[in-house]
Structures are given as C-alpha cells and as structure tokens.
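lol so apparently i was supposed to do this last week
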Amino acid sequence: MVTDETDDTPDRCGAAPAFRSGFVTFVGRPNVGKSSLVNAICGRKISIVSDKPQTTRHRIMGVLTRPGSQLVFVDTPGLHKPVTALGERVNATALDSLDTSPDSVDVTALVLDATKPFGKGDRWVASKLDVPRSIVVVNKVDRASRQQVLDMLAASSELGAAEYFPVSARTGEGLPALVEHLTERLPEGPEYFPDDEVSDLPEERWVAELVREQLLAVTRDELPYSIATEVTEWEWPRIRVDIVVERESQKGMIIGKGGSVLKQAGQRARAQLPDGVYLELRVKVDKNWQHRPDRVERLY
Ligand code: GDP
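anyway here it is w/ guanosine-5'-diphosphate bound
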C-alpha cells in the first residue's frame, strides 16, 4: 500500500475533526415554501404544509445530523401585517426567532417564491434582516419558467445578500448545494440534538397540528383562521383533540353533512398516526378566540 507521508490531516495526527453545528432560520412571506423546505431537507414531515397561507403558527425546528455536522432549522411563521391578536402573536414569534446581532453565527435565509414577482411584502421581510449576512433562497423553480427564475434573481440581487440559491422543495433540485453551503458556514459547536431526533415539537402539539392540517385540507377556504386544535386527553393509545371554532355556524361546517367532513379529516389524520391509535375529535365553540389575547395565549 502506498501512503502519502506529507498528508497531515487532523485525523492522521490523532485529533478528531471538530464537530460543527448551528442554526438556520427561514423567513419569508406566507406560502413561499418555508415549511416545505425544512421538510424536504430533513427528510420527514415536521411542520404542517398547507395551500392556505399562515397555517404555521409555531416556531418549529427540523434537525439534519450528518457525520461531523448538525444543522438545526427554524421554521418561522410567515411575517405579515397583523390584524388580530393571533396575527400579532404570529409576527412576534417570527421576529423573536431571528438573531440579527452582529456576533450571531446563525444563518438567516430569505425565502422567495419564483412563481410570483418580487414584491413589497418580500422587501418588507428583507428590511427586518441583516441582508449582507443572509442568503436568498428562490424556491419553487420546478413551477417557474427559466425567465421567472432569472427575473427573481435579478430583482432580489438589489438586496445584496451573501449568496443566492434557486431551489425546489418539491423536486429537491438545488437543495444539496444549499445544504453544502450551510454546512460550510457552520461554526464549531455541540450536537444539540441526538442523532435520531428530527424535531423539537412535543408529540401532543404535533398531533394537534396534524388534525388542523387535515381539517384545512378538507374544509372550505373561509375557515382556516378560525380553527385551533388542542389535545385535551392523552392516554396512549387514546387521544382526544378539541377543535375550537369561533361561531356556532362554523361548527356545522367542520362537522359536515352527517359528520362527513369531520370523519374525513379524522381518517386522514389517523392514516399518519401509528396503528392502534384511537383518535377522538370534538368540536367546541369559543367566541372570537382569535381576538382575545388570553385565549390566543392558551391555544396558540
Ligand atoms: P410556508 O407558508 O412558507 O411555510 O409555505 P408551505 O411550505 O406551507 O408551502 C406553501 C405551498 O407551496 C404548499 O402548497 C406547498 O406544497 C407549495 N410548495 C412549497 N414548495 C414548493 C416547490 O418547491 N414547488 C412547488 N411547485 N410548490 C411548492
């Protein structure tokens, strides 16, 4: 065997290469694909994905652990102009999760939707960031034309971000290059999460979110902002989830004719839970919960 005596890489000298880790925050307007990106990169469904904007109410992390490195993704709720107490809380969570202090080593990625023009909303989100230290991720390139992608890159280049990555959360295009770049920027750090952990979301929260996601999928458009879900009983394998709506009339919409809507949502949620789980769904009315800060605090 021929060895290269001049090779003095750290492992040849006996010291293990340093472990690298750090936090990556995705920010962007609602619906640009932040949750989808975390899910695609971490390879598992973590936060809920919906066609309707502003369904991600929680600061949820996805973790990608590879030999020698760990990336912790923070999936923020979309920033938007707040109208209700819930909206204000959503924004506060998104802003809280940004560390823009000069000595921060965290990476912030501004996510843009390649199928939409670069707009005022994107600029507003960018104004909250330390852009020269941030990267821009242009998502949904699978659905955009080449020209749309080029236009988005050209328009967003005015921000002067550190790097630009055209990607697709749906097909995975561009994600390896993005992950490589993020890994290179990681400082030396501890393994924050055990190897097999992909999310810090408590199980109860995850089940409540799953039910909410499936309800959004089967109900009509006007409902989403009025639905909250909470686990009110957890006696494994028996789980009860309360669905909280604002008005009596919405209760009927959730339940559906002969219970059909609720049944469908329950079936879809159960299909994603382990075998043998007994999931009970109950619908409650709590008048205007979104406009009452005390209620938002509890149900949020
Ligand atoms: P968020 O509000 O920014 O977290 O956005 P979501 O991840 O919930 O995605 C919003 C919608 O865009 C969903 O319908 C996703 O399926 C869709 N979406 C996300 N990423 C992509 C992508 O790369 N390509 C396409 N075609 N659709 C995507």
